[in-house]
Amino acid sequence: MRLVCISDTHSLHRRIPDIPAGDVLIHAGDCLGAGTLNDILDLDEWLGALPHPKKILIAGNHDWAFQKEPERAMEALTNAIYLEDTGVEIEGVNFWGSPWTPSFLDWAFMLDRGHAIREKWNLIPQHIDVLVTHGPPAFVRDEVRLDVWSQNVGCYDLWERVSQIEPKVHIFGHIHEGYGQHKLNRTLFVNASTCTERYRPTNPPIVVDI
């Protein structure tokens, strides 16, 4: 199965230079710009024109409509499978998606580190092949850089859960600077942020075969 991974398109999806062919297109959140229902309608039209047989989408911290108006958001999204602390099986491959990230300022789908966010990660089943979260686990492509200052901002509790279940692939975004992939133990970690640090949608989609 070929996975085509994108994230953090911020309603700039139509400016992505090229989307490779594949079996499942996965969007790891921050798909919207202003986070409105109209943004979802435009995204859905674009998704419907892509050739991938299946599309999976989770929300991110910019995607307010999915948190504030979930029923209407679901009505607007017709061309992708939306996962929010839920899973789906496609051709024998088990996927799980979750939008949460540790609290930072006032954004959508944020929870305090520790018990609050750990409850969400504990929902992830043991036997998951592909985990899709919006944010990264701690110390995995999670470094924010500003001039000479840098900080790892990933979620420690997410790292603990991923270490327990060891999915084949863990796809995320959120930290644009962390774009790329690397293998650690049994898991391939993929930061699929499409937008660069300057919000230009020029990072190519990452293709993963499982």
What would you note in describing this structure?
By secondary structure, the chain is α/β, with parallel strands linked by helices. It has a single domain, classed as 4-Layer Sandwich (Purple Acid Phosphatase, chain A, domain 2). It is 20% helix and 29% strand. It contains 5 helices and 15 strands. The chain has helices spanning 37-49, 64-68, 70-76, 115-121, 156-165, and strands at 2-6, 24-27, 54-57, 81-82, 86-90, 93-98, 101-102, 110-111, 130-133, 143-146, 149-152, 169-172, 180-184, 187-191, 206-209. The strands form 4 sheets. It has a 6-stranded mixed sheet, with no helix packed on it. A 5-stranded mixed sheet has the order 4-3-2-1-15, with no helix packed on it. Strands 7-8 form a two-stranded parallel ribbon. A hairpin with a 2-residue loop joins strand 10 (143-146) and strand 11. The longest helix has 13 residues, at 37-49.
Summarize this structure briefly:
This protein has one domain (2-209): Purple Acid Phosphatase, chain A, domain 2.
Question: Which structural traits does this protein have?
Answer:
single chain; 210 residues; alpha/beta; Purple Acid Phosphatase, chain A, domain 2; 6-stranded mixed β-sheet; 5 helices; 20% helix; globular
The secondary structure category is alpha/beta
What fold name goes in the CATH topology slot? Purple Acid Phosphatase, chain A, domain 2
- Helical run tally: 5
Low-pLDDT residue spans: none
Q: Could you tell me the radius of gyration in angstroms? A: 16 Å
Q: How many extended strands?
A: 15
Total separate domains: 1
Question: How do the strands line up in the largest sheet?
Answer: 5-6-9-12-14-13
Strand-residue fraction? Answer: 25-35%
Question: What characterizes the major β-sheet?
Answer: 6 strands, mixed
What level of helicity do the residues show?
A: 10-25%
CATH architecture: 4-Layer Sandwich
CATH C-level class: Alpha Beta
CA-to-CA gap between the ends? 5 Å
Q: Could you state the order of secondary-structure elements as H and E?
A: EEHEHHEEEEEHEEEHEEEE
Mean pLDDT: 96
CATH superfamily: Metallo-dependent phosphatases
Overall shape: it is globular
